[in-house]
Design brief:
The chain is mainly beta. It has no helices and 8 strands. Strand 5 and strand 6 form a beta hairpin.
């Protein structure tokens, strides 16, 4: 399924994080506030799995992140130079990997064959 995601700074220490599932139109959103967000010079592209028990609950097909955009202000795009995690876990139990295609496209996948 295609999911549109958005993370927008809405205050000096707050971000709105929202998504829309393309096929159903279902919307989710949350506003998160934390003083550490006042200076947040990082951007991440991540696949998070809440409630996952083991590798069998991870996606079996690659997850494609496309049309990625980052803005400094509403009308000023930032030029992204994604880099993989410089300090990944030593024991990647689900053989996770990332393919940075370009500044607008990133693929995250798991090789779960034979994993528990």
């Amino acid at each position: 399924d295609k999911i549109f995601g958005n993370m927008t700074r809405v205050g000096s220490q707050s971000y709105y994080i929202g998504s829309v599932i393309a096929s159903s139109g279902k919307v989710t959103g949350i506003t998160y506030t934390n003083s550490r967000l006042q200076s947040q010079p990082w951007a991440y592209n991540t696949l998070e799995c809440y409630g996952c028990q083991d590798c069998s609950t991870y996606p079996t097909q690659p997850s494609y992140f496309t049309d990625l955009q980052l803005f400094i202000t509403k009308d000023t795009p930032a030029h992204i130079n994604w880099v993989p995690n410089q300090f990944p876990a030593k024991d990647r139990k689900c053989h996770e990997g990332v393919d940075i295609v370009n500044d607008a496209t990133v693929t995250i996948e798991f090789n779960t064959q034979g994993q528990q």
